[in-house]
Structures are given as structure tokens and as C-alpha cells.
Design goal:
Elements: H1 4-33, H2 40-53, H3 56-71, H4 79-95, H5 98-117, H6 124-137, H7 143-156, H8 159-179, H9 181-197, H10 206-219, H11 232-244, H12 260-264, H13 266-269, H14 283-287, H15 303-311, H16 317-328, H17 332-340
Helix pairs in contact: 1-3, 2-4, 3-5, 4-5, 4-6, 4-11, 5-6, 6-8, 7-8, 7-9, 8-9, 8-10, 9-10, 15-16
Amino acid sequence: YVPPQVRRAQEAIDDKKREELGRLKKMVNGLINRLSEPNLSSISGQMEELYMANSRKDMNDTLTDILMNACVTAVAMPMRLVMEHVLLVSILHHNVGIEVGAHFLEAVVKKFDELCKSDAEGKECENLLALIAHLYNFHVVHCLLIFDILKKLVSTFTEKEIELILFLLKNVGFSLRKDDALALKELITEAQRKASTAEKKFQDQTRVRFMLETMLALRNNDMRKIPGYDPEPVERLRKLQRTLVRSSGSGKDTQLRVSLESLLGADQVGRWWIVGSSWSGAPMISDTNSKTQQKLHLGKVSSKIMELARKQRMNTDIRRSIFCVLMASEDFMDAFEKLLK
């Protein structure tokens, strides 16, 4: 039973929160709508101010929702638009904190996985893949995730997957080759094996042949063989990113080295890639009560030292044990041996 006055107070708080979130959404939406390459500097600055003024969770949720609505549509998005949106996320990821990029990445990957399983006719999968590719281009995520996605697409190997593999390789293929040439070589071998076994399955062999040619061009570092490949826009935006990111290294140290499996199972296994991320299902928290606390054997310790330990507020067995070891050891080697025990 909730008393009426408590209920009224709760409703008032909920209304107030809803109103605040509505106002925040309007402000973020206004900034995202005006986003373009020339005013990226001022808009990223205003977004950082909003991050300082509001709760991180509210800002992450709002920004992710607005960007997903803007970029994940049934028609193919212009690549320049996707790049500008992702560049904003990457600047906030480096300047505000890695949880910004991590939250957005998780939402994108989960949506991509969901749409891959369903037979959606639109271009949503390509748009989501473009977001992931540019998150990699702008140093938000490590190549590990891209290889995981490519392996998953190669293992399924239907016509839709072949289109997605081609799309991804065209956008990030040469960066992947630079970051991990061996993994790319293994992927190409696997794709060739799949293509040879699946020859009967496809009526139209030209796409499969084209995909294999593209992969060979990547392996041989031959950019001319890939039609429509133009690294210039990404390079230009990377230069802009370097001027806007405050920390000296524009990215390698803040790249999220997280696998596809970890991202999809984040609700079950926790988000270890975000420092300080709380998670109710932590096995370390739940198991401590059930385990019997093991006693620490120290041999006989004089009551005088135990009294000193009590005075120094050593209030748990392990603290008392460490204190007694340090106080009663003959030399540093003796202390080291006892501490190891």
C-alpha cells in the first residue's frame, strides 16, 4: 500500500523528470539537426556542456535514441551524414568519457544483430553496419569487433550477407589490413572455402566472384581494383577529429577492445569495458555469502601485537593478518614468504 501523499509526491517527481527529459531531447535534437562538418566544433562543445549539466545516463540514452532515429532508416543514408554523426560520438567518447561511445556501440550492435536475424527488406542493416564501420574508423572501437562481425557474416553466407561483407570491406578493408593482416588473411581463406562449397546454392555467381576479387585486392593492397573506394573523406574528418580531441593521443588508448559476443551478452555478463559500470548479476557479489570465509593461519601471534592491530583499527581477519605479518617478520624475505601464504 502506498499512501496518497507519497503517491502524489512520486507522480510529481515522475512528471518533473519527464518534462526535464523532454526538454533535453529537444535541445539535443536541435543540435543534431544542425550538425555539419563546418560547425562540428561548436556543436561538440555544446554537447559537452550538456553532458556536464545533466546526468550521463540521461544524456547517453537521449543521444543514442536521436542518432539511431536519424541514421537507421529503410533507405540508404548518405555516407557523409553517417560519418559526421559518428565523428560527433567519437569526439564525445574521447573528451567526455568512454561510456558515451560504449553505450552507443552497444545499442547499434544489438539492433544490427536483431535485424540480421529478421528478414528486413530495407537498408537498415547497411546503415547500422556503416555506423559500426565508422566507429572503427574514428578509433572508438577496436578491429576485433569488425572481424567478429565479418566472421559471423561469412559463416551464414547468404546473398544478403555477401552484400554486407562487400559493404564493410569497402569502408574499412584497408584499415583492417593495416591493423591485423593475419586475421584478414584467415578471413579471406574462410570466405574462399565457403564460396567453393556454396557454388550450387547461388544462381547468380557474379556477386560471390566480385566479393572474392575484392578480398584479393585487399590482400594485395590494390586500391584500384575496388570500385568507388575513396579514402579522402575519412582522412579529412580524421584530421578534424585530431584538432577537436583534447587528449594528446586521438584514440588508440581509448579504443574499446570488445568482442561481438561480449556486447550481445552485456546484460548477462556485465559491461567490463566500462570502468565503474554497476551490474546486479555480478557473481563476485552473490557468491561471497555462500562461501565459508577461509581462516588465515598465522601460527601464534602475541596478544600485544593483536592489541596493536585493534588500536590501528584492523577490523577484518585479513587486515589483522597482514598487520601481524608486517610487524612480526624478521626481515623482508620472511615477510614476503608469510604474505604469500
